[in-house]
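Researcher: Good morning. I'm working through a list of sequences from a screen, and I'd like to move beyond sequence-only analysis. For each chain I'm collecting a predicted structure so we can compare shapes side by side. This is the next one on the list. No need for commentary yet; just the structure.
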Amino acid sequence: MTPAPIRYGARPCSLVVCRGCCCGDVRKNPGTDHDAQLARLREAAAASGGRLLVRTSDCLGPCAQANIVVVQPSTEGRRRGGRAAWVGFALDDDCLDEILAWTEAGGPGIAPPPATLALQLVDPPKN
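Model: Good morning. Structure tokens for this chain:
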């Protein structure tokens, strides 16, 4: 007898915030309050009612474009063809505003990124 497949709930849009060697480093980007950035994203996730998750990661790779935030699609966004979007140079409130507005609109696969945020999309590192 084949066991029934494990069913997981729908995953919301999520942000992976790089906090490795360069991202979040005050020496590399001294004009950015990295702790406040992360706190703001976490507060937005807490206020989203489960529609947004935020987590951190060690170095994601594209250090020349620090700070990196990866916007991962929700289950529905992935079903519609959305893929993770890598945002580089996420250093100010305007960028965070656009990331949060995009995730609120549904994120990858559901809504296009704001035009100015699209200019900050970078290629993920090659393995």
